[in-house]
Amino acid sequence: MSAAIIDGKQIAAQIKANVREEAERLKNERGIVPGLAFILVGDNSASQMYVRSKGKACEEMGFHSVTETLPADTSQSQLLDLIRMFNHNPRIHGILVQLPLPKHIDESKVIEAIDYRKDVDGFHPVNVGRLVTGQPCLRPCTPAGVQELLCRSGNDPAGKHVVVVGRSNIVGKPVMNILLQKQKGANAVVTIAHTGAHDIAEFTKLGDIVVAALGKPEVLTGAMLKPGCVVIDVGINRVEDKSVTSGSRIVGDVHFASASEVAGAITPVPGGVGPMTIAMLMKNTLDAATGVLYA
């Protein structure tokens, strides 16, 4: 068996094309241009790269965007003041504070300071609560992207046993809460497996769909999977590889070579979940601009 490849780039392009079309309609009919503010604290090179790629996506969508880059020694109160300014700016519909933040800043206080209607990361307690209870809300981008990958690749999770490996607030828990809702594109039976398990394979072998979000390179192998299952690999890990010029390469949490011989369908890394995260951020910003979720 050789697994079918779920092409995240292609699916993300479909979503972004739809967002671009809807944004143009919003501008023409209501005079609203979706606006997104990025706040970056410090000089973390990975964070800078992520913000640049998100800013480029805004340009492609025809969105208005601003980036505020603050020094690493910025105080928490200064950051909160900036967030409050954007909360009251009618041209800004989404606010994204790039994580991680310097250690002297309390991330939870920062997230709570963002107007939940502009919380395009989907991390605010109000949005988390609405997600759990199945109400409309701005949802975390990567978990929402996982759902889109499944549905748009013909792998509707309804009635399936989904095993999510990982329990983070950013991926594992939101994926669980999205997929177990009694809603279209969900209605799955969901199991969370994590490092507290004596043997994670006991759970992953039962999954019709396995979502890997462990944050460890290539730990989920083909021997740990149910034949014919669908594998969504959320992991992005840089590992040493002296055979390439850069000296390293990007791999997922799944050992692709062995898993692709067992699974029926699988996402690659890169090119799977990654492109979906930015596509869903653009959709969240559009939804925030329309106000449709909290009407």
What labels would you give this structure?
295 residues, Rossmann fold, globular, three-stranded parallel sheet, six-stranded parallel sheet, alpha/beta
SSE map:
Elements: E1 4-5, H1 8-30, E2 35-41, H2 45-61, E3 64-70, H3 76-87, E4 94-97, H4 107-113, H5 125-132, H6 141-152, E5 161-165, H7 172-179, E6 189-193, H8 201-204, E7 209-212, E8 230-233, E9 237-240, E10 248-251, H9 256-259, E11 265-266, H10 273-290
Structure description:
The chain has 295 residues and is an alpha/beta fold. It has 2 domains: 30-117, Rossmann fold (3-Layer(aba) Sandwich), CATH 3.40.50.10860; 141-273, 3-Layer(aba) Sandwich (Rossmann fold). It has 10 helices and 11 strands. α7 (172-179) links the parallel β5 and β6. The longest helix is centred in the N-terminal third of the chain and has 23 residues, at 8-30. The protein is globular and about 55 Å long.
How would you sum up this structure in a few lines?
The chain is of the alpha/beta class and 295 residues long.
The fold-level CATH name of the largest domain is Rossmann fold
Q: What is the helix content?
A: 25-40%
Biggest pleated sheet: 6 strands, parallel
Strand order of the largest sheet: 1-11-8-7-5-6
**H/E topology pattern:** EHEHEHEHHHEHEHEEEEHEH
Shape: globular
- Given the helix and strand composition, which structural class is it? alpha/beta
